[in-house]
Write a structure and sequence with these properties.
single chain; 282 residues; alpha/beta; Rossmann fold; 2 domains; 7-stranded mixed sheet; 10 helices; globular
């Protein structure tokens, strides 16, 4: 089996990816328990991702392991996709630790060892362009983790795969309507507006009236993204089954995203992302 680790900024990003993959009808949930995962993936998850010294745990502050948010298998192919929430683009130390563990745990010698059920590993980073823009997001990613010396200009698809010895590394950047800055939330807002404009408008009006104002030193786009998260969550919680749940659950379960991603429109960012994920292994 081939395994793609997807590094996401937050849990709702991971659920958005899961929803795209499942709705495309090319992937399905991989519902095996962890001990039934192929070797050595089971060992990696159980010993690297969910193990922590009991002496470091604080009561009332749940430990957030970088566990996969969901698990999806490509239909009729031995490819497993594991989206992981890292808690934001600035979780540099945590991301470095996890990336290094993946590269070491699934190096060429491990994959060629008799009995190993994993044949290849790839890692995909998914970020928002935010106010930085696409190219600055790519530059920052390279500066923090890889220090590639070659040109990292990417196409208008905002995505690129790079082969590093026996490991494939990819990056995909979400943008808003201008194609350079923005976030996943910009796309979700427009989907919700298209599928239920009245509801979205009512939620926007509510938060226009009650949402806290921007603090003095707060970035404008960061502030607006927080507000959009609130709007999206309000819309999703009008469905009784989602009442009280976070945006990640809303993205996973809301009926407002039904019939949105299939058939896949090749001009959308999620179509580009789906095709990009499908090219994780060559």
């Amino acid at each position: 089996m081939k395994v793609l680790f997807v590094f996401c900024e937050g849990p709702h990003d991971a659920h958005f990816i899961s929803r795209i993959l499942k709705t495309s009808k090319q992937y399905e949930e991989y519902d095996k328990i962890i001990k039934e995962y192929p070797r050595p993936l089971y060992k990696f998850i159980s010993q690297t991702l969910i193990t922590k010294n009991i002496e470091e745990i604080k009561i009332g502050k749940p430990d957030k392991h970088p566990m996969p948010i969901c698990s999806l298998k490509k239909i009729n192919e031995e490819i497993l996709v594991l989206p992981i929430s890292l808690g934001g683009i600035d979780k540099i130390a945590e991301t470095k630790f996890l990336l290094e563990k993946i590269i070491i745990s699934f190096n060429k010698d491990v994959l060629e060892y008799p009995g190993c059920e994993i044949t290849a590993i790839s890692t995909l980073f998914i970020y928002d362009a935010d106010a930085r823009g696409v190219q600055e997001t790519i530059r920052l990613w390279n500066e923090r983790y890889f220090h590639f010396s070659f040109d990292l200009e990417i196409s208008q698809n905002h995505s690129r795969w790079i082969d590093i010895k026996d490991h494939r590394i990819g990056i995909f950047v979400f943008t808003g309507p201008d194609g350079n800055q923005g976030t996943l939330e910009d796309n979700l807002i427009e989907i919700f507006r298209s599928n239920s404009g009245t509801l979205l408008g009512d939620a926007e009006n509510l938060l226009d009236q009650y949402f806290h104002g921007k603090s003095e030193n707060e970035d404008e786009l960061v502030y607006l993204t927080k507000k959009k998260k609130g709007i999206l969550t309000i819309c999703g919680q009008t469905e009784k089954k989602n009442a009280g749940y976070a945006l990640s659950v809303v993205v996973r379960d809301t009926e407002l995203l039904n019939n949105t991603f299939y058939p896949i429109n090749q001009n959308t960012q999620w179509a580009i992302l789906l095709n990009f994920i499908n090219n994780s292994f060559l």
